[in-house]
From TrEMBL:
It comes from the Bacteria. This is Polysaccharide deacetylase. Coiled coil: none annotated. InterPro entries: CE4, Glyco_hydro/deAcase_b/a-brl. Residues 1-44 are annotated as: Disordered. SUPFAM superfamilies: Glycoside hydrolase/deacetylase.
């Protein structure tokens, strides 16, 4: 389970203080459904990305690493990530919480689904209208640098928060939430946001929660082609479930603890000290998380080569221990041999170039376990 609670000053640097269970590994939806598609890579993209090609006989896939950030609006954290990504030729994915594109005074424009009160958001809203204008400007730079913007939906209603929470929503509620996300982004686009109308292709649900048989049909009907909310044991290749690619969050071993943990920053913090704020231990926690990331990369690189999902929030939890570990890993891994730090769309583009039989063979390989 993962939580992002916002504040008016910086909508992404607080966590719920209460104990939270780890997200369970959940069964796949009952239906596979049609395989979704994304636009083919452009000639310019092919020129810049030599790895974007059909594998030859005996050729191994690139080791993809997918850095993805829930909420995705903190300028101070983008200001750290963007220069590293540019230097390392890396692309990342920001999963935008729609409410962060609405000023506090405009919060009543958001009507949460499932009978929740108009203007309610468990992560607040986006500050002043001036804050929103500034946010549009720096997110435009994120887009210009080739990074992806997906959705983290809107009001972030988790089991521990306002009810009914997302795990209880039916398809109509998910449809309403996605309609609201589109309306908010459309309004931001009218104010200068350069995100193309068809660019939001997937997302992660609040706290990794949801009834997938209800949620996935709504996602597919809104043009989404991937989800990255479910949890799998080890690093596994994406598979098509209910008409979407599922890029699961890996449950991995933390070498410093000898525990299995979902590889999301909050889950790692919770496993280390029940998410208590102990900034004096920041360097210790950073090293443990960085070593975990490195061991997972090595296991996948030498194993099934499945894309590694690195789930993160832009946060300052525990003396910025987890953001620092993520930044260190971004700098460490993205120019390693045979490794590519890519967006979800780019990985799907690569998969579309492959022989389906090759993808089936990759999916049958054992999950990479560190």
């Amino acid at each position: 389970m993962v939580v992002t609670l916002g504040s008016h000053e910086d909508p992404e640097n607080q966590a719920d203080s209460g104990p939270l269970p780890m997200a369970p590994r959940l069964p796949a939806p009952k239906d596979v459904g049609p395989t979704p598609t994304v636009p083919a890579p452009t000639p310019e993209q092919l020129q810049k990305q030599p790895w974007m090609h059909k594998l030859g006989p005996g050729e191994k896939p690139p080791q993809f690493v997918l850095f993805s950030f829930d909420g995705a609006v903190s300028k101070q954290h983008w200001d750290k990530v963007l220069p590293i990504a540019k230097a390392k030729n890396a692309h990342v994915t920001g999963l935008l919480s729609g409410v962060y594109m609405l000023a506090d005074q405009d919060g009543n424009q958001y009507q949460p689904p499932a009978g929740l009160k108009r203007g309610l958001s468990d992560i607040s809203f986006g500050g002043t209208r001036q804050d929103i204008a500034a946010r549009i400007s720096y997110l435009n730079q994120v887009i210009a640098d080739g990074h992806e913007i997906g959705t983290h939906y809107n009001g972030h209603f988790c089991t521990s928060g306002s009810q009914p929470s997302v795990d209880k929503w039916d398809t109509a509620a998910w449809n309403a939430e996605l309609d609201q996300f589109k309306q908010i982004v459309d309004k931001a686009r009218a104010a200068g946001f350069t995100l193309p109308a068809d660019a939001v292709r997937g997302g992660r649900t609040p706290c990794l929660e949801g009834n997938w048989d209800q949620a996935f049909p709504a996602m597919a009907s809104h043009g989404l082609v991937y989800d990255t909310s479910k949890v799998a044991l080890g690093v596994q290749w994406p598979s098509v479930q209910n008409g979407l690619y599922e890029f699961p969050m890996p449950e991995v071993r933390v070498p410093g603890l000898g525990k299995q943990v979902v590889m999301m920053d909050f889950n790692l913090w919770y496993s280390l000290n029940q998410a208590k704020d102990e900034p004096a231990r920041a360097a210790e926690f950073t090293q443990i998380v960085f070593d975990t990331y490195k061991s997972v990369h090595l296991a996948a690189l030498n194993g099934n080569r499945a894309p590694i999902v690195v789930g993160n929030h832009f946060n300052e939890w525990n003396g910025s221990a987890f953001s620092t570990a993520m930044e260190q890993f971004l700098e460490y891994v993205c120019d390693k041999p045979e490794t590519v730090c890519a967006t979800y769309t780019e990985v799907i583009q690569w998969m579309q170039l492959q022989d389906p039989a090759v993808l089936d063979q990759l999916r049958r390989m054992p999950a990479a376990r560190n």
